[in-house]
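Task card 7
Instruction: Convert sequence to structure tokens.
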Amino acid sequence: MYSAKAKKRAGRISILILKIIVAFIMFSPIIWVFSGSFKTLTEFTTSSNIIPKNFTWENFRYIFNNSNYFLYVRNTVLLMGGATLGTLISSSLVAYPLARMEFAGKNVIFAIIVGTMMIPNIALIIPQYIMFGKIGWLDSLLPMIIPACFAYPYNVFLFRQFFRSIPKELDESAYIDGCSKMGVFFKVLVPLSKPTFATIGVLSCVFWWNELTQPVFYINSDQWRTLTIALMTTFMYTSGNAFVINWPSIMAACTLMIIPPMILYLCGSRFLVEGIKTSGLKG
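Output:
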């Protein structure tokens, strides 16, 4: 009996140690970035120590004093907020009739929507660039925010799956009380779908906060530059005739960029897990 308990305890300890090792491996890039943000350029390029020998805040001062950092934050927040709000509203409205109403061709429409997920986004960049150029939207956030207001297929799929898991008797009760179809959506489905809204909201926020490909294509001026573009172009300097990348300042900017998504994940982790688990309850 004692041997069985000892083996069980040893197994738990082994699993715990394995989890710690895996967690350290997963977090090692973040630790490296955080450490590099407090090093001088010389130490960063010559030493691989995790703990800085010459601890300095100069890299963060460089970011705030030598760039329009808060302008880039504003642009990134506008992009993230506008695109996330647009996709939440549009995707849920598209998913509602596909999940709760009966009409001819419903399954075909849903299959087409899901099928568009097979098209890589990068394949659409050039035709979209030409189109947005002709209507005068280039060098602004509109080419990224407006398309988000026309529903993303994966988000439609998640909303539809969750809506289908809610008993239709609730709709019928709402109709008896005098609700319209849109009334059922806003008064019944939306309040019950908070986990799914939170899940898609968190994933969308993190995606747009870190998005680089589309801002690089559509944004040219410093006025609408986002943080991801600034990491590529702004946090560096020249030394004489040589072009020198200020890696510690880039690490400091990365550290500042990591903080908001981490806070968002920590605050929304409960809804995130619940939303992912419940979105596939009913096919």
